Amino acid sequence: MAFILLQTVDLVVGAIWIVVLVYSVMSFIPMDPLHPVRRTVTEIAEPILRPFRNLIPPLGMIDVSPIVALIVIRLLGELVKLMIRSAFQL
To answer: What value does the mean pLDDT take over residues 70-81?
Structure first.
């Protein structure tokens, strides 16, 4: 059971990472904002990044919130995995 939970955490964290990275890369590519791929990625990434944007102002033209979000997401994933290992005494 613990193994499945650990893999699920890795899967969710990995999926969030991919979405945030794709969103960040797409910000440099001129693309119609109504394009289905861009719209879908934006709808998923914006709620994740919004709290970080509220805390961290842009540095000039550079938005560092995706970098901070990726670090925090990874740390939270590791914390959850540590709690799972502790709960199952692994």
So the answer is: 97
Distance (Å, whole) CA 7 – CA 73: 15
Using a 10 angstrom Cβ sphere, with 0-12 exposed, 13-18 middle and 19 or more buried, the burial of residue 60 is exposed
pLDDT of residue 31: 87
Separation between Cα atoms, residue 45 and residue 16, nearest integer Å: 8
Residue 61 reports pLDDT greater than 90: no
The encoded tokens of residue 12 equal 């969710």
Residues 5-47 have pLDDT tens digits of: 999 999 999 999 999 999 999 999 998 989 999 999 999 999 9
CB 71 within 8 A of CB 48: no
* CA dist., res. 30 & res. 27, Å (int): 8
Q: Is 31 exposed, middle or buried (0-12, 13-18, 19+ CB in 10 A)?
A: exposed
